[in-house]
Amino acid sequence: MPDTLPNTMNAFVLHRHGGMDAMDFHDDWAMPQVGPDDVLIKVGACGLNNTDVNTRSGWYSSTVTEATTGGAYDDVSREDPSWGGAPIQMPRIQGADAVGVVVAVGANASTDLVGKRVMTDCWQRDWSDPMNRDKTGYFGSERDGGFAQFTTADRRNVGVVDSALTDAELATFSCSYTTAEGMLSRANVGADDVVLVTGASGGVGSALIQLAKRRGAKVVAMASEAKHVQMADLGADALLPRSPENLKQALKAAIGQDTVTVVADIVGGPYFGTVIDVLARGGRYTCSGAIAGPIVELDLRTFYLRDLTFTGSTVVPTHIFGDLIGYIERGEVRPMPAQTFPLSQLRDAQQTFIDKTHVGNIVVIP
User: Fold this and answer.
1) Number of domains present in the structure of the chain
2) Which of 2, 154, 203, 275 sits most deeply, having the most CB atoms within 10 A of its CB?
3) What backbone phi and psi angles, to 5 degrees, belong to 174?
4) What percent of the chain has pLDDT over 90?
């Protein structure tokens, strides 16, 4: 590590599951140690995602059955699992979407990376068996992330990006867009599809609109009507309220048919059965979230009589991160930064994220 680097840094640290008081700002947190396969990044910006809120609150615990509110849960303890089914080790610096400049490298990392601006690939892998889902972790969950002045990442989990976009703009991509691309890939979305996107105004939702359009599909976006202007600007072909009383009728009026071939869902909750009911025979449902509630009702007759395919999407193939960097560099997707906050105001940033009055992504600047 270069002698010019400090011994301590600013960091916002999660100490336990709970409410906002479970995490604290520190101005004297020890600098991370650089392992032989690591790079040390001076963080320029870091995006905020549902994973940060859900891990902090303990929502991934099987004891929780309600929507993601960001509040504390009485039955969640330090031993409750994270998204991956194992307890998270604390203290932990969260933040998956780090963007910054490499300032030092470990023995096994190329010195050519020093001075390069990089984005972090969120998925921590066993690089001898990279698609073994049982051996994966997440940046800012199973490993300290980007809500700090400095962070380390495995040399294989960073991508050099050549773009005129700012750090804050680049920090809106990695988690949301790889999640969205993973969903669309699992559902084999193509130019012949009509894709219904729930929760379309959030980070993953706005990514789904752009990436489905990139594949040539027709997109119907569902979001509160106050956000429809931004959704149209992203290229959505039709816009519907967040939960129309009669979804089939609303679809018919918007696109001339009352079914879709794909539902890309990050909402779940009580409206789940309604979106399943508009899938055409042979349609596909792909899911990577349940912000309105994880426990849903399903009529199995709808599922099997219509020959539907359901896919859950979490761990993405290794090529998707590199593909995303290519999309960014060629201008095929664009960022949706909603608001930035200084690192010291991470609690305020999380509350703004939870309130869901924004369109796009919340970003923290250390």
Assistant:
1) 2
2) 203
3) -55, -55
4) 87
To which residue do tokens 């891990």 refer? 55
What is the bridge-based pairing of β-strands 23-30 and 38-48? Answer: unpaired
- Give 28: exposed, middle or buried? Use CB within 10 Å, 0-12, 13-18, 19+: exposed
Quote the domain boundaries for residue 249.
Answer: 179-312
Claim to verify: residue 30 and residue 148 sit in the same structural domain: yes
Check whether residue 79 and residue 111 sit in a common domain: yes
Give 343's DSSP letter: G
**Residue closest to 41 by CA, chosen among 138, 132, 147:** 147
CATH number at residue 96: 3.90.180.10
Domain contains 62: yes
141 and 72 in one domain? yes
Residue 68: per-residue pLDDT:
86
User: For the chain, give me the number of helices (H) and strands (E)?
Assistant: 10, 18
First and final C-alpha spacing in the chain: 20
- How many residues make up the chain in this entry? 366
Q: Is the dihedral of CA 65, 71, 73, 77 positive or negative?
A: positive
Three-class SS state of 56: helix
pLDDT digits (tens, 9 = 90+) for 224-234: 999 999 889 99
Grouping H, G, I as helix, E, B as strand and the rest as coil, residue 281 is strand
